[in-house]
Amino acid sequence: AVGGTVMFTTTLSPSEKPFSSVNWSFNVSTTIIIFVINAENIIGPEYEGRITFFPSTASLELRSLTLDDTGEYGVNAVHDGTLLNGRTTLVIYEKVSNVLVTSSSTDLVEFSGSVSLSCSASGPSLSFLWLNGSSEVTASDRVQLTDGDSSLTIVNVTHFDQRPFRCRVSNPVSTVTSDPVNLSISYGPENINLILSPSQGYFAVGSDISLTCSVGSRPPAQFKWFLNGDQLLDTGSELRLMNVQMSNSGNYSCQASNNKTLRSQTSEPSAITVLEKISDPSVKPSPNLPVEGISVSLTCEAIGSAFKRNWMKDGSDLTPTDNMILSDNNRVLTFDSVNRKDNGEYFCNISNPVNSEGAKYIMIVNYGPENVQIKGPNKVNIKGTLKLTCSAESTPTARFTWFFNGTEILTNSAEYVREEVELSDSGNYTCQAWNNITERTSSSVVHGLTVTGICKSSGCAAGCIAGIVIACCVIVAAAVGGGCYIYKKK
């Protein structure tokens, strides 16, 4: 390069014997330096102060090069009586300078604009290379390189073309890169996306919801918001819904527009459903009490938006039997003919996507009375104590009425007790059971009792003695009569 330094080296190696003489010349006729051993060097006037000679190898350094130094350089040397020579050519270039990129436009719209970039520079033997960011630009359907690659044309620009463009200019002695040229390419809106936070689609009344609309756009997009297709007053990329009510339910969408590209894009709708939380759950039975054999229903109710009802019995999922029917989306559990096997704890869980609540009801099936029984002695000694107990299968517990030989003697007691019975207490005791809820009365059960004439203690009253005497006379008469009959028969 102009102003640079060149070193002409030879293929000769230093030796103990020095060169006898060396002659460097330019374009054959111009002397650069003449070296003769043990004599003063002769240097051409235009090379004074610009050269350094190395006698050991006959090499030469030339400094402060100018364009006039372009040409052929030769050397003749005598060494140990032998003449040696060599030739080479040197070309001097101006360095590349004044590299400048100009653009036909820097404000463009994607897909509808084209741009031409031109690179200029000073210097000989120039070559041009275009860079987009750090990548080399190559020709394609959209990219054209002309004028020895000094001109770059991009057709139908995209926003990927907006990275800085540079022109790199080179010649054999230098390389210079231009300052960047930035293209401003308006594009979009594109890749619109509606983000819901929190991300679920169901929300409880009173919740706070944020919707964010993201989109690629230059310049920044303008936004509109819609609910079920109707435009809202809100603008900006974020829509905040505070303390939402059920009226806020619906399909939300955002629309982005670009006032430079005159394009717009609308997001896919995002569904928001606001639900009232479930509260005050209850399981209400039908007005009639559950009596075995009749129809009974349990109704699962709650305040709020109910989506699902699940029934359980005694802690396990309810499996309906033949006498059960679930209706109205599991709201009503009906027993066509309730029976005592249906006794137990019924639990109804009501849920929706925001919460769940449950309530229980303990079913007690009323039935009976049935299987009435009387327990007590069939014989009691005179003056002894009589205790009879009546039982029956019944819910609630049955009430009892006692009869003696058809006459009512006691009511509302499971036990009949009589102290110091008389012979007149012998007879039929009847127990009848009844249920005040089922309003059913059982069939009567009869228990026979005989009071015997043997005293319970050593003392005996006058009546007791009279009874014994009568009984003895009856026995003697029977014996005599029986003996007479046997005698006559013989």
TrEMBL record:
UniProt xrefs under Gene3D superfamilies: Immunoglobulins (2.60.40.10)
InterPro entries assigned to the protein according to its UniProt record, in alphabetical order: Ig-like_dom (IPR007110), Ig-like_dom_sf (IPR036179), Ig-like_fold (IPR013783), Ig_sub (IPR003599), Ig_sub2 (IPR003598), IgSF_CEA-related (IPR052598)
Transmembrane segments: 465-487
Alphabetic keyword roster: Disulfide bond, Glycoprotein, Immunoglobulin domain, Membrane, Signal, Transmembrane, Transmembrane helix
Ig-like domain ranges (all copies): 97-184, 189-273, 281-366, 369-447
UniProt xrefs under Pfam families: Ig_2 (PF13895), Ig_3 (PF13927)
PANTHER family: CARCINOEMBRYONIC ANTIGEN-RELATED CELL ADHESION MOLECULE 5-RELATED (PTHR44337:SF20), CARCINOEMBRYONIC ANTIGEN-RELATED CELL ADHESION MOLECULE 8 (PTHR44337)
UniProt name for this protein: Ig-like domain-containing protein
Protein's organism: Maylandia zebra (zebra mbuna)
